Amino acid sequence: MIPEIVEIAAVTAGLGLPVALAGLGAMHLLRERSIGTMLAVLAAVPVVVTVAGVAAITMRMIIEGGSRDIVLSVVVIGGLAGLGVAAVLGRRVVAASRRLVAAVHDVPDSGEFTPPRGLPAELGTIAAALDEAYRRIRLGRERERALEGARRELVAWVSHDLRTPLAGMRAMAEALEDGVVSDPETVNRYHARIRLEADRLSGMVDDLFELSRIHAGALRLSRRRIGLGDLVADALAGVEPLARAKGVRLAGSVDPVVPVQADAGELSRALCNLVANAIRHTPAGGTVSVRATAEGGLARLSVTDRCGGIPAEDLPRVFDVAFRGEAARSPRGDGAGAGLGLAIARGIVEAHEGAIGVVNAGPGCRFEIRLPLSK
Fold first, then answer.
1. pTM, two decimal places
2. Distance between CA atoms of 359 and 367, rounded to whole angstroms?
3. Which of 25, 186, 234, 242 is deepest in the core (most CB within 10 A)?
4. By three-state DSSP, how is residue 301 classified?
């Protein structure tokens, strides 16, 4: 009995090996063809091996006569049934893949991809990945359009902000050069005005450079553990001259321990921008309050002013580049720049993995920076 089993195994292996190799060769040649064709080859290989092995064994030693014909018929019918099932499966897979391809071809310019239903699991995974990819493309296009619109608006606004003071400086310089102005009082006033405009333009250029670094992702932070108490004290000291000139009082309060991992210089600039903006929009005799607290694992820096509130339609645009909340772009005498301070503050805070926002609060509004607490 054992020699017969060995012989059956040897005959089957001898027939199956070349058939399997032929099947692998056919699969390699058809690797770029339809999945249905490859499934047909896959189903044909075991069927051919089985039929050939049964035929060889029955003819040699095991079954003879009518019984052999019955066995061969059953094997052939089973093989044909397997091929038929493989063909149906292949057609379904091909149809599903064609529906997926058609859905991709039918994607409109808006990028709205609608995955077809009833796909096999693997094709369904591909459809879900395509849906996510198209969603990201849509978001990327929307962001690109928004950035392009902001860039054009910034160029137009900054061009105006540069042109107006430069024209005034040129007029005053020509008046001094031509001797049109000669009395010492007017000459000194012109010199002071030219110096003031030069300082303002220098600050505007610095802001543009900082904003370009933020948008280009080139802002490098030197983080260390700092306390917000020192940061608030330094910010209030830095804007004290502006507050005194405007007649605005400053108030600050800090919880006992509010540590964060941050770049002290950059975060101080962001806070100073918020406080200076609050001072400019607070009437004389008003108060600007700065408060640092720790709550829910977050450090919160809030700046509250008495500006009278921000129109609801302007709240989403407060941190946009060059937004001032007014149509006029003429320079003001309060030292206001090109409307870049809040945009820079947002960029710095987001570079610290934080968030910044603004809400109307009482007689004014409250700007708030949220940063993770240092552990």
1. 0.58
2. 7
3. 242
4. strand
